[in-house]
């Protein structure tokens, strides 16, 4: 029984982390682990040289 609870806790934490990353990626935010490792080469959302996408109607 305790193994099932531990497994459910691990799956819950993993699901929360994935949901958080997908939500921040959808907003165009950087999803790097720390701001010091977030550079234009490793994270497109953090580089100042990229322009945001616009939808023309």
Brief overview, please?
The protein is mainly alpha-helical and 57 residues long. It has one helix at residues 2-26.
Description:
Residues 34-49 have a biased composition (Low complexity). Residues 34-57 are annotated as: Disordered. This is FeoB-associated Cys-rich membrane protein. The structure is a single chain. This protein has a domain at 1-26. It contains 1 helix and no strands. It has one helix at 2-26. The mean pLDDT is 75. The longest helix is centred in the first third of the chain and has 25 residues, at 2-26. By secondary structure, the chain is an all-alpha fold. 44% of the residues lie in helices and 0% in strands.
Structure summary, number of beta strands: 0
**Strand residues, percent:** under 5%
Q: How far is it from the N-terminal to the C-terminal residue, by CA?
A: 56 Å
Secondary-structure-derived class: mainly alpha
Name the poorly predicted regions. none
Largest sheet: none
Note the main attributes of this structure.
0% strand; 57 residues; mainly alpha; rod-shaped
Helices and strands, with pairings:
Elements: H1 2-26
Region (Disordered): 34-57
Organism: Clostridium manihotivorum
Protein name: FeoB-associated Cys-rich membrane protein
